Amino acid sequence: MLIFLDLRHELLNAFKLKEIDRAGWINSGLKSVESVASHSWGVSYLALLLCPKDYDRNKVLSMCIIHDLGEAIIGDITPDDNISKEEKYELEFSAIKELTKSSEIKTELVDLWLEYENKSTPEALFVKACDSLDMALQASIYEIKNSDFNPSEFINSALEKIDDECMRILASSTVNGKNPA
């Protein structure tokens, strides 16, 4: 019974992702923005649609779901927070271990997160690209909704991280000089 209470506590903490706003959007002056959980869904949906046939789709989708899980405890850290990459990594790693310690698949979840963070497999690199593509697409949505929002910072950042030409086209704010939306 105690293990289920511990698991329930971890689940309630993980579900905080539904309420944590993506800080980069807030920092850019937007008011009503997506949650970290919404972002994770977007990354997952992109991965489902775009996953290369020779990749382990289950691994890819699992990685998408947990890639920002640590933010349920530490929040959405951005470069504006002046926290080093090493410190952010350690904070997230500690949070991932805390949020999965009662799960029967805790080792698998931690290993997936480490694989993603370390970009150690083609699947991890693909999920990183989906993460960036999601940001670019969301920036385009905010541009459509907010005429005073300039998405170029977010789209350019995404394009720097995406190698796949099809994904780069999807991330671009314009196609042949026209906004695709």
Model description:
This protein has 181 residues and is mostly helical. It has one domain: Hypothetical protein af1432. Helices cover 65% and strands 0% of the residues. The protein contains ten helices and no strands. It has helices at 2-14, 23-27, 36-50, 57-66, 71-74, 85-100, 106-118, 122-145, 152-161, 165-171. Helix 8 (122-145) packs antiparallel against helix 9. The longest helix is centred in the last third of the chain and has 24 residues, at 122-145. The protein is globular.
Descriptive key words:
Hypothetical protein af1432, 0% strand, 65% helix, 181 residues, mainly alpha, 10 helices
Write down the Rg.
Answer: 17 Å
The helical percent reads 55-70%
Query: Any idea of the CATH topology?
Result: Hypothetical protein af1432
Shape, principal axes of CA atoms: globular
Low-confidence stretches: none
CATH 2nd-level architecture: Orthogonal Bundle
